[in-house]
Amino acid sequence: MTALPASIDDTVALLRRGNYIANRALGTALFLALKLGRPLFLEGEAGVGKTEIAKVLSETLGRKLVRLQCYEGLDVASAVYEWNYQRQMLEIRLAEAEGTTDREALSQDIFNERFLIRRPLLQALEPALEGPPVLLIDELDRTDEPFEAYLLEVLSDFQITIPEIGTIRAERPPIVIITSNRTREIHDALKRRCFYHWVDYPSAERELEIIRVRVPGVEERLSRQIVAFVHELRKKDLFKLPGVAETLDWTRALTTLDCLEITPELINDTLGTLLKYQDDIAKIQGSEAARILAEVNMKLEAARH
User: Fold this and answer.
1) Which of 29, 21, 14, 24 is nearest to 59 (CA)?
2) Are 246 and 274 within 8 A, CB to CB?
3) Going by DSSP bridges, is the β-strand pair 40-43/195-198 parallel, antiparallel, or unpaired?
4) Buried b (16+ CB within 10 A) or exposed e, 81-92
5) Which of 21, 121, 135, 208 is 20 to 30 A from 296 via CA?
6) Residue 177 and residue 137 in contact, taking contact as beta carbons nearer than 8 Å
7) Which is it for the CA torsion 67, 69, 75, 78, positive or negative?
8) Is 220 helix (H, G, I), strand (E, B) or coil?
9) Cα 272 to Cα 269: distance, rounded to the nearest angstrom
């Protein structure tokens, strides 16, 4: 188990060891969340690297990653716990076969931890030899507000109340990362329990560094073309702007095709790795792609002189 970082610089370096290139603002928010034991709430567009932060923390700190993927209709049985009803029924039938008639004793016997199925939130409160796990609550904005309200107890006191058993409390709080793509607003009551950081699209230089780290060996001119083209796309009125994940996908696609330099034809053939909606692809394909590329090449050429 790796010790928690002792400074902001150590936090940025920790993420870098996991091939995550973070700016100082993110390093500061994460350092404070780790130091003070508070959940970190990350908002931003899809594909900018929010979920990856939790994965990298798990890897670099040597902690278990417990992931709760949120969706509409998520309930306590899927997120927290449920009873193993089949085993309970079997226990009841065995007790009846043995002639047990004490219903209160039988009820106490079947509602204990032997019959409890632990879901991610309950798993995250359990002690572990390697230290408290990293709990990733991913895309919280996809859930309903009642579930969001349920989380308040978990995030305030790192405990869960099970009526038949009582309150289960974490000996040491997990490291909690919550992400949201902001498809709806998260309630202030939950945000107050967290530190907050907006994960924005990276600057061109930082995105270039991300490519160097995540897809090593790419020609420098090609990398700069890719980053410049993607940044131009992010200025357009598109339904879904490409994130860092799409930049990396496009880079891998172009290197797989042994591309040394982007051409309008290559853009048209590979645009589906960057844009995920047909209307966006139709808007960029053809003459618009060629125009953007010509503008990108002109800027890169001017920067060289």
Assistant:
1) 14
2) yes
3) parallel
4) bbeeeeebeebb
5) 21
6) yes
7) negative
8) helix
9) 8
pLDDT in tens, 170-193: 999 999 999 999 999 999 999 999
Let me know: does 174 contact 124? Beta carbons within 8 Å: yes
Tokens of 112: 């204990």
Contacts of 189 (CB under 8 A, 6+ apart): 149, 152
Output DSSP code: residue 181: -
Q: Hey, what's the torsion of the CAs at 28, 32, 34, 39, to 10 degrees? A: -100
Tokens linked to 283:
């808007």
Contacts of 211 (CB under 8 A, 6+ apart): 218, 223, 226, 227, 247, 248, 251
pLDDT (tens digit, 9 = 90+) per residue, 241-271?
999 999 999 999 999 999 999 999 999 999 9
* Under 8 Å between Cβ of 61 and 1: yes
Instruction: Quote the tokens at residue 16.
Output: 């870098």
- Tokens, residue 8: 């902001």
CA torsion angle 92 98 104 107 (round to 10): -20
Length of the chain: 305
Q: Which residue has the tokens 């709806």?
A: 184
